[in-house]
Batch of 2 targets.
Target 1
Amino acid sequence: MLVSGGTVVDVDGRRSASVRIDRAGQVEAVAGDLHLEEGEVLHDASGCFVIPGGVDVHTHLHLPVGALRVSDDFWTGTRAAAVGGTTTIIDYATAYRGEDPLESFRRWKRWAQPSAIDWALHMTFTEAIPDRVLAECIDEGVTSFKLYMAYPELLAVDDEVILDVMRRASARGGLVTVHCENGDAIEELRRRAVEAGRTAAIEHARTRPSPLEAEAVARVANMAERAECTAYVVHCSSGAALAEVRAAQERGVDVRAETCPQYLHLDVALLEGPEAPDFVCTPPLREQRDRDELWEGLARGWIHTVATDHCPFWSDDRRRGIRNRPDGFRDFTEIPGGLPGIETRLALVWEGVTAGILSVEDWVRLCSEAPSRTFGLWPTKGSLRPGADADLVVWDPEREQSLAADELSMRVDHSPYEGRRERGWPRLVLSRGRSVAVEGHFVGERGAGRYVPRRTVEPEPVV
Ligand code: MN
């Protein structure tokens, strides 16, 4: 197969070139002077950018949440990912307290079998774990471990466990990803709000203010410094939190930050609107000045990756709440948190390119290369160098796409971006050399995705 006539953008820069893909589904050559050979299929990429497929390192598919389940499973979610230009995901497997982490890992692997694109797993720990478990995870290709500082009743671990897991992970070439919010303080704010009768969706944001995110980021950076561990801050949502990321980076701590499209585009005022339950996510949506600072952080390299935290729920489920009450949730603490986004990430970050904030190279680095490198997928994923998997997107900067729910492929009945039209969408998406999306339509196969065991982590920061 030859993808010809486009502008290739990857780790080696931007140039007019063709990409030759071999029968094994790997990149064979990238050069300006490749000509169609006998029996070879030609894909015309004229007017388009040819980039490595997107790598989304923060998704929640098939996930049970209270009495509910997210609306996308691994089949429907990865199908939508492919349509939007993402060809690899890393989903979060969770070992709840008292569970055997390796058993949780195997359960998530079973759930993920129908995936249409390649996939990997992070492992979330909710209590102290023996060293043996970390070694076994790494043997299975799981090299990143998530810890929560929020949700004390179900997920959070204390600082002693965070520091301990950081030391053990670092010693084995792994890294730690952390949900940074001061969970205990937030619990107090939530309890007081409910007791005072402040029960509306906007209280979700008021009880999770950005200083409590920033404080947790600073604490994680301090612990990462002690443990000499790479710490990856998931879903950095605020200017205050970003300032703490920068402060740590400037003194040489390897803290990397992820943000998500919802924090780049959506305002907290949506939590006071008519569809407020559809906009609950954690951390909550913030304000314009936060978005300005996050975009600057992307352009300046302080933020390392954009992932989605894709975690969709049906509108009715949101209104019944995590206790699934037929008469509706009693207060904001029962609204399931999370937004759909696995399909729309590349397009929503591309807006930064059309706005003149990011270069095309920045966009590729943030959405594909950096997440691949950080999480041990490099150079198989996130690269178009010879020998890499031919996960490739032909990105048409003129193609228009509505972000209304009924014009997207995600299995969910509302869109956070209803009414918005994008200019910039994939013309063609390949997964290991096979077409998975053409002109906005899924053409791949259920179960064609493979589990990708990950390598241990590069010691040096990428940016
Ligand atoms: Mn998440």
Target 2
Amino acid sequence: VFAVGNPDAQIMLIGEAPGYEEEQKREPFVGPAGQKLTGILTAMGLQRSDVYISNICKFRPATAGDQGTSNRAPTDVEMAACLPFILTEISIVAPRVIIALGATACKGLGIGEGVTRLRGKFYDVQGVPTMVTYHPSYILREERLAGGGLRAKREVWEDMLKVMEKTGMPISEKQRGYFKK
Ligand code: URA
């Protein structure tokens, strides 16, 4: 499942790996997590076609037997096999900012482990400032809990505001206040 979007994008997003829906449609982030990601982009004033959306692993990691619709995270070996492709994508797109979505992308890009500790800051990946934030599926999980995921949404949103500032995007007062109580 190759990347999708604008090869001249200012913002490149890197997720984990395609899941069931992505494998069917051969497009990253088209399942439930993808819909959440599209919502985040809309809140930023962006369309999917404005950004470049990729994954740290290019194929859906297989499980033994009939996999059904279940997914798993890629192993270190699987990510290492895909890393040359991702690094080449970064050099071709040459985005102003990368957004690493979740722990797997963060680890695969060599930023480190522990997305809760690492998120909200920029790290250098091949000379490109890279923001670490939660994966959209984390928001989906949090939404099912008491509180409806408001804290997770606000944290991701604060990370996105930093990306918008870094890329010089306009930010309205209304946007600054999203996902506050
Ligand atoms: N989750 C990801 O990390 N990537 C996808 O493409 C879809 C879901």
